[in-house]
Target: Molybdopterin molybdenumtransferase
Amino acid sequence: MTVTDRLLPPTQAIEIILREVRRLPVEVVPLAEAGDRVLAEPLVADQDLPPFPAATMDGFAVIHDDTSPWREIIADQFAGQVVDVEVTPGTAARITTGAPLPRGADAVVPVERTEVRDDHVIILQDDVRPGENVRPVGADLRRGEVLIPAGTVIGPAEIGLLASLGRAQVAVSRRPRVSVLSTGDELVDPDQEPGPGQIRDSNRFSLVVAARRAGADVVWSGRGPDDAESLRRVLLERCAESDVVLTSGGVSVGEKDLITRILDDIGTVHFRRLFMKPGKPFHFASVGQAYVFGLPGNPVSAIVGFEILVATALRAMTGQQPVLPRPVTVVLEHDVESGDRIEYQRGVVWADGEGVLRARNTGSQSSARLMSLIGANAFLLIPPRDRLYRAGERVRAIIREPIEGQPEGDGGWEPGG
Amino acid sequence: MTVTDRLLPPTQAIEIILREVRRLPVEVVPLAEAGDRVLAEPLVADQDLPPFPAATMDGFAVIHDDTSPWREIIADQFAGQVVDVEVTPGTAARITTGAPLPRGADAVVPVERTEVRDDHVIILQDDVRPGENVRPVGADLRRGEVLIPAGTVIGPAEIGLLASLGRAQVAVSRRPRVSVLSTGDELVDPDQEPGPGQIRDSNRFSLVVAARRAGADVVWSGRGPDDAESLRRVLLERCAESDVVLTSGGVSVGEKDLITRILDDIGTVHFRRLFMKPGKPFHFASVGQAYVFGLPGNPVSAIVGFEILVATALRAMTGQQPVLPRPVTVVLEHDVESGDRIEYQRGVVWADGEGVLRARNTGSQSSARLMSLIGANAFLLIPPRDRLYRAGERVRAIIREPIEGQPEGDGGWEPGG
Model:
């Protein structure tokens, strides 16, 4: 039995995917377009920030151990406007947050602790420490420091750092070009009324949203034709124009499972079936320079298969780190029956008042029941042990969304508020 | 002292924001454009799904208590192609996953448990239960059931449900139109070399990415002019063309804090200062139909202020539910000094092997140090009690990203794999 026919555990399937997929090329984009892209090179500080000692409060720049009862105001030092003065004993300079400390000064007294009389200021604070309310050179970052590792998704803080360091152009991984193709005689478009035995195509829409959320550029989506020859032509065309082609349907063992046969014919199939639930039939193939993921037709299987396997491939192709999520441990709130395959149950995980993660599933776990994904912020990983996991037992879970406190919490939103 | 001058706890500031902001209008978009939008009306099932009893496996549709040693294959029932046959004792119909069960049949035997000889099939499974491998009518959803509450962000599962129910058009909240304006004499663009006392503008880029991630349509971003009259004109123009204007800088108590004075002049200021760290100076004002958030110039203060207050306003404006995150409880890994204001420390939260959430902060919490946000998946909420919080004590945290297991975990990625 070859690897392609074995029921593969998801870990082995992921190993194969990570071995097969290649990194996409790097491209340089203007800073303003770098948001949510994957940084291709580490960001290393090529300078100290701040480059000058800067005030952290609005107030007066002084010499900390100057004991003069009042001081002459010799300058106004605003951020962005440098005056060349020197603070000496008996003098002070007005200064605003972020402005450079004038020569001679070594501390800033906040405006609330001063009293201004004409061109003089009285310092009302008894004890001024050297460096008080001053951000020294290099306090925020030091030349040579690795600030952001390659493979990081560029969010608000990352783009802010890139801007601070003058990176007007940023090297990022090209977005994966993805095509989404649903197959199946029984499918009609959402605006059509299904006839006897027909259902509306939902996977195409689900997979487009999932692919965009994973950072892909969805270049095409549609329903595949019913006959083998046209489907083969569409698939070849999509593979020529995409990095990744997602199909749904046509991969189980029935006679009309066209995708299976076409992939065997036009490409190299790496595996076909997974030892997981939902999503046992799952093809992964190379066709030319493209990768084809043949997802199951069941809507839940398609989404779970995307998140566990396809999203991993996309992260690997863009060099995103970490490439795999690290599961957490959670305490079950109710009994869960395990099956004959590893099960990715859709669940809700929250933290109780002691900070312990607790989990329940979302009810019936049928792989056609999209409702099992609504409100599910986690996949509960139920090992294939054919036994009951009891309420109070611990299992592992992959978290999909930020978790929250328990719904029946104390209601307070902030501490000490 | 009016409310605008008091140091407001963040909870009170949020109450004011939620009282002031109005819901944006609802618009109807094609299904394919509904991803990541906020659903404006609950999705209620207007039909049962599946609408017919459907096979969940490829195999043969049979009568469960038929004891015939072999059965005539009377039809091929593919998904999407309904044949009008009736399964009677001594007969069976070939059937594929998702196809409707023919009349008379009440169970499906998987193809692996059958043996086909010419036009006959032998059922190798001893005991067939009625309904086995059949999804009954309404198993996935029942007419009248509320499937998705209004205010839900439309993800892969939600759009799949909308498609399944034939919603080719979807009512969603209009995206908030947001303008982003940085102010400050000391700022230069990222491609410019800062002169003495100058720094590069980073907040504009951070706030654009943050606003987009929060679902906004960023209609404009730029640096404000230095003189009061031009700045006032730009601000009025932005307010006329935006639902929300974000400014950064110009809000502390120094003499050049232009935004404070302009907002007083052109609009109604609801509050100016918050009892929180970072982000004490923080303005919220109404100018015509627009809301202005005057964020501090410090990069960390701007991002934290955005996430805690502006993102909340945007959720309220689009009707997103829940509007506020529920903090979790976490165990501190190290001592943390509390200050005189509620502090939103940037931190890393993970779950240990027992499922307990543990937290550390990201080092120096200076509000100019963007590095404190890199890798921070949470804000640790440190109450203003002027005491040391010790390692092992519990505090609360707002989780920003999906949490993971501890880095030094057992390395296993799946159970039983």
